[in-house]
Design a protein that fits this description.
alpha+beta; 4-stranded antiparallel beta sheet; two-stranded antiparallel sheet; 8 helices; 10 strands
């Protein structure tokens, strides 16, 4: 799969990326590690986060499966166990915001030393049930800025999506139908109660896919601001050596977004990756993938 990236957006924008893309924001339940001097609130969300930390960082499949059964039945214990084994856990740095049914927090990777921002949202508190838990790495040089949407922010987002669908989507008639559907939902007030960026992105994705049936189409929310988006007066941001080292570590950890390389039937090579990245960092990964599929020859029968 290839990722088609749109033009850069303004501060705190939600962007739509259409057709053949791989969602490369480190989402969905990466392992965490609680630190003794960071207190977790004694709320339904806090107790759920504590249960997740205890189970996930144990690396034990049975404990993770028990957590999933009790708190997050829509999740997958096998995948969580795999994530635990791959990453080794996170250190909890701080609780950013706390409500009875929602927590946001900062963590640092134990193995890669990358900082990440997490949000845990419950769909119910008696008993606690997880609606979403997302953990996203903060890109080098970026600053956390998780906004609360208002009517103006939602309108700007819908306008931006409409423009990009009109300009880039491969089927203009389907694009027009998707835009109309989103405007209809807006007119009916379906988006009015939503102030969380992740929830709004999920709602828009659901409504767009209901029309297009395109599983590659999605809306994503980034809870941070990149230096180039902040209106700095000293010109484009040049990553520091530390920033570059952190990014290199992140890409090596994620295999430069290459998630699958295999030979299918009839001698078809299949490569799945999520982004076009700096060749100075990811060039060897690309070469290795291409060499693998290029060297294969179907046996003679």
């Amino acid at each position: 799969m290839l990722r088609q990236s749109p033009a850069p957006e303004k501060r705190n924008s939600i962007v739509v990326r259409a057709s053949l893309c791989f969602f490369l924001l480190l989402v969905a339940l990466m392992p965490l590690g609680a630190r003794a001097d960071v207190g977790v609130p004694d709320t339904p969300a806090g107790r759920t986060l504590r249960a997740f930390l205890d189970a996930f960082n144990s690396g034990n499949h049975d404990r993770i499966a028990a957590y999933v059964k009790e708190y997050d039945p829509e999740n997958n214990a096998d995948q969580l166990t795999s994530f635990s084994g791959e990453t080794g856990g996170f250190t909890l740095l701080s609780i950013v915001q706390s409500k009875p049914d929602k927590l946001s927090f900062m963590v640092r990777g134990r193995g890669d030393n990358l900082e990440a921002y997490g949000v845990l949202q419950l769909s119910g508190t008696t008993p606690p049930r997880v609606k979403q838990i997302n953990i996203r790495a903060i890109p080098p040089g970026a600053k956390l800025d998780d906004i609360q949407l208002d009517e103006t922010g939602r309108q700007k987002t819908i306008d931006a999506i409409s423009e990009r669908l009109t300009e880039y989507y491969v089927y203009p008639d389907v694009a027009a139908k998707m835009i109309q559907a989103v405007h209809d939902h807006q007119k009916h007030g379906d988006y009015k109660p939503i102030v969380d960026g992740n929830e709004f992105a999920d709602a828009l994705t659901r409504d767009l896919r209901a029309i297009s049936q395109d599983r590659h189409l999605f809306v994503g929310y980034d809870p941070y601001v990149l230096p180039a988006e902040s209106g700095a007066l000293d010109g484009p941001h040049k990553p520091s050596p530390a920033d570059e080292a952190r990014f290199r570590t992140m890409m090596e950890h994620d295999n430069c977004t290459f998630s699958k390389v295999e030979i299918l039937g009839h001698n078809i090579g299949y490569i799945k990756f999520g982004a076009f990245l700096n060749p100075n960092i990811c060039g060897p990964t690309v070469v290795a993938a291409m060499n693998f599929v290029g060297a294969y020859r179907c046996p003679d029968f």
